[in-house]
Amino acid sequence: MRFGFDIDDTLINLREHAFNIYNRKLGKQLGLELFHALKTVEIHEPFGMTSQEGKQMWNSSREEIYYTTCPPYPGAVEMLQELEEQGHEIFYITARDREHGERTKQWLKDNGFPVRDDRFFCGMKDEEKIQTIRQLKLNYYFDDKPAVLNTLSEEPVKLFVKDQTYNQHLNIPRITDWTQWKTHIPLPH
Ligand SMILES: [Mg+2]
User: Fold this and answer.
1) CATH class held by domain 2-11+72-184
2) Confidence at residue 166, expressed as pLDDT on a 0 to 100 scale
3) Is 6 a catalytic residue?
4) Where residue 188 falls among pLDDT bands split at 50, 70, 90?
């Protein structure tokens, strides 16, 4: 089977990692309850930033957000390793800019993710992921963003949403805990 995965906030806890970085850089100590109460993908609001300021903060922090110690979600790496061992094909499809492609790939490898160079795709906008997903003829695709998943509802690919506060309205099979993936993903025997 051909499995496609978004990376940020699907396989790794990037927004929370960024929230901690913002706290440190801004000399603040906002509690994680504020993070968990966010209903937006963007995280700037509890820091009192406008969306423009938030965008600037994100862009100027991106090196640190992407390439330091962002934790994978528990069970995510193990799930991918197991799928790979079972002979399934794993594709990564991320909206991260093309200029971050090679380093992101290396970061994933360094953190134990099974990555093949020809199965890693980056640099597309959210609504453009559909082209790649179609071309790859994926059987399964996992993402956190409504803006992506909504474009795929008519496609033959089987969709799953990684549970986040901002995607509660989506009526798609939901993964809250990667350690429980086998109860959610029906694999043919
Ligand atoms: Mg994502």
Assistant:
1) alpha beta
2) 97
3) yes
4) low
